[in-house]
């Protein structure tokens, strides 16, 4: 299996240094790989045995290691034209997803169920990379951005801030949880407006 990529919050963390994250998202192109990635089915001999598994049998497999983290294998297509860059991660060269791909997938595949930590990621990317870049990147996902914005608008800002306050922010991001809801809303509104102005 060669056509996989490393994405999600941990991949974003390695690029913008905004919060600690111990879960790894591995994106694959073909769901037929999923049974071969399940250590129990394949009887793999691992140094650290997984605590449990979750999966829908068709698109995703979650392998849970209590006290360590999780590995999510997700079958889905890329959402941008240049989704990855080859970079070294712990001594191995991998296709790591770039921020525009990571955030795009949050909108396209999770927008209708956006979580506060996703808002934190969007706001942190805007803080590090600039709101203008994030607006431009997300403007290519007009419909998904509208769906995501509806979720953000319905979520109580204080509730979102309280949940985000439980994250483990890195230096320079300690107070971002208080502003992330508003930043995310502003970025999405601008991205939608940008997309509609270019339509």
Please write out the topology:
Layout (H helix, E strand, L loop, with lengths): L3 E4 H9 L7 E5 L10 H4 L9 E4 L4 E6 L3 E7 L8 E6 L2 E6 L1 H12 L5 H14 L1 H8 L3 H13 L2 H8 L15 H19 L1
Parallel strand pairs: 2-5
Antiparallel strand pairs: 1-2, 3-4, 4-5, 6-7
Helix pairs in contact: 1-3, 3-6, 4-5, 4-8, 5-8, 6-8
Which descriptors apply to this entry?
199 residues; alpha+beta; 19% strand; two-stranded antiparallel sheet; Nucleotidyl transferase AbiEii/AbiGii toxin family protein; five-stranded mixed sheet; transferase
Give a structural overview:
With 199 residues, the chain is an alpha+beta fold. The protein has one domain. Helix content is 44%, strand content 19%. The chain has a five-stranded mixed β-sheet. A two-stranded antiparallel sheet has the order 6-7. A hairpin with a 4-residue loop joins strand 3 and strand 4. Helix 4 crosses helix 5 and helix 4 packs across helix 8. The longest helix has 19 residues. The termini are far apart.
Brief rundown of the structure:
The chain is an alpha+beta fold and 199 residues long.
Number of helices: 8
What's the total number of strands? Answer: 7
For the report, how would you describe the main beta sheet? Answer: 5 strands, mixed
Category by helix and strand content: alpha+beta
Overall shape: it is globular
State the low-pLDDT regions, or none.
none
Strand order of the largest sheet: 1-2-5-4-3
**Percentage of helical residues?**
40-55%
Q: Give the radius of gyration.
A: 17 Å
